[in-house]
Amino acid sequence: MSGKIRHYFAGGNTAKGFHHFFDSNVSSLQRLWIMKGGPGTGKSTIMKQVGHAWLERGYDIEWIHCSSDPDSLDGVIIPSLGVGIVDGTAPHILEPKAPGAKEEYVNLGEAWDRQQLQAHAEEVVSYNQKIDKCFQEAYRSFAEALAIHDEWEEIYINQFDIQAADHLAASYIQQLVGNVRLNKPAAVYHRFLGAATPKGAVDYIPNLTHELPKRYFIKGRPGTGKSTLLKRLAKTAEERGLDVEVYHCGFDPESLDMVIVRELGFAIFDSTAPHEYFPERDGDEILDMYEKLVTPGTDEVNAEIIGEIRERYNKKMQEGTAYLKQAKYLHDELETIYIQAMDFEQINKIQQSIQEQIEESIISG
Fold this sequence. Notes:
Blueprint: E1 5-9, E2 11-14, E3 17-20, H1 22-26, E4 31-36, H2 43-55, E5 61-66, E6 69-78, E7 83-87, E8 103-107, H3 114-118, H4 121-157, H5 162-177, E9 188-192, E10 194-197, E11 200-203, H6 205-209, E12 214-219, H7 226-239, E13 244-248, E14 256-261, E15 266-270, E16 284-288, H8 289-293, H9 298-301, H10 303-340, H11 344-364
Parallel strand pairs: 1-5, 4-7, 4-8, 9-13, 12-15, 12-16
Antiparallel strand pairs: 2-3, 5-6, 6-7, 10-11, 13-14, 14-15
Helix pairs in contact: 2-11, 4-10, 5-7
């Protein structure tokens, strides 16, 4: 029987630059392989091959997708075995906490033809400079979009009932967590709900939540307390010893978009654009923050200015996405240089070596 794949992002192209939560997701692993190597050297392929091998043997795995190319992987984790493989190259550089004992580097540079790469040295430098510039321009666009989003929030904050929001949060925390308290330290995993990618906004909400009996879809407007509610809930669950998956906003990593507590069987998430979903089964429920906490008629009174703000915001987000798309195009071009210089038979041997070491860890464990 085949296992199941859980998909998520641990890194993101945000309004505050590149941000990642890799440490949160790999710190408890007993073995971690950190791969180093240029683009096109086989990192994602190795992770997929190892992941699928264990998936076919019935093990559940976690796919950590790359925000700059969601079809590629930045990591694979096999939770029940306590092992993982991650891409440790920039911008998500990872340093071992216990080199050799827990983590080890995998140098894919052993499989490239250095002379062939040296012949393209100037071209490689040029591509990297152009790619970096694209990312910096994308972050600038997203930062400008965030400033516009703050204007949007201000409209609703001025019509927001803080006291009612406090009561609502307390009510939902009681409803979801109740008096549950487990006598163990909580495991808390920080991830991204979605990511700004060259394809636009991408998320894996259906995959992450489909096994949960209860799903709460938070509706509302910018500034209507969605993230604040989620932060309070996550903190309470952690204090009660419950394992918590905390999903940050891919646009503003300081905000939260979803909290999952699998021990209690629920997910509660911001279900507004660009990750808008609607109830489709028993156990799904809407929580409308605008309806409950904002002065009626706020949308209508401010319709013109909201429309203008939304237009400026969308323009900046599209601009940022265009830069990510250009970076992806340049990255693909750079990959071709490395692919032509790689000995993929040697890469296959590296993949087989990792697979064998995982097998050995099971036997010795």
